[in-house]
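Mods, move this if it's the wrong board.
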Amino acid sequence: MIRIDELIVQLCPKGVEFKELSELLDYEQPGKYLVESIAYDDNHATPVLTAGQTFILGYTDETDGIYPASPKEPVIIFDDFTTAFKWVDFPFKAKSSAMKMLTPKPDTLESLRYAYYAMQTITYTPQDHARQWIGTYSKFRIPVPPLEVQREIVKVLDTFTKLEAELEAELEARRRQYKYYRDALLASKDQKIRWTTMSEVGEFFRGRRFTKDDYVPDGIGCIHYGDIYTQYGTATTATVSQVRSDMSSSLRFAKPGDLVIAGVGETVEDVGKAVAWLGDGEVAIHDDCFVFRHSLNPKFVSYYFQTAAFHAEKNKFVARAKVKRLSAENLGKLAIPVPPLDEQERIVAILDKFDTLVNDLSNGLPAEIKARRQQYEHYRDRLLSFREAA
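Not the wrong board. Structure tokens:
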């Protein structure tokens, strides 16, 4: 940082020039690169990029019309639909004409990387958002300090980006490790461990209907099936939603230690996602949820519902209509291992440590990644804040 401050004092003491992105970047709209087929196969090497937040649509074996991006000649893909942009340094096929491939104009920037970081600092109000590179975004202005200053800024921000990428890679590796141990611990074929059907170790019953119109800021804690996908992990002690207290007599409740299971979903994988209720009192359950009341360690059961073995068996019973469904009867047919209670507790203790490491937003790797990202954003905004030259 000191080096950059010294360069600014030396090379641009009166401020820096600001330029529109259109003065700095050339753009190309897909035409000859557009994919003609949608025969994608993840075994192929060339990614197909499309407009949208994720960009990668699939992979193709097509060899004609491949955009020749590379680490030496990267592009920034700007998405007209979302005003999102992505750094791309690999060959790809383009799917959408809403994509704009941006490259630096000669003798304007130290590298495209500087523009990429500067574009991240651009803010605008909704009325400024015309969802187009040509009409709106290309007219936003960024500071253009001397090339030597640009070079030093990129060097600093690349260091932060590399640290975050290393943490992301470690998180992904830990998640794979977590999945491996979870499946190994909970799907053991050890002959000493008894396997039985879920109906033999507990009972299922369905919740009662409530709607979004019944939600209130202060009322009876409730779990909606949709929240199980988006709001809860393995277990919870508090709800994110509450319904009117005067509905109490018409509701059904889970007790502490019960498992709450989503009985419907948009995909086969979603159905059967579960959360262990560990709160102090009862909680109301939506009618597209099932409660599993049992004598096992509740988190042990919830972890088992996450295993590949559970999903492989569960998938055989999912009704594959437009909305995917499971019945209480079929849930009761599913097998579950029943080791001694102290062994269940040992397994839960091991998996809790992994779960904290890969999912906890206050203590685990996600928390460290969040902190690094905030640190990066702080220094990015500081480094790219210049006084404009008169």
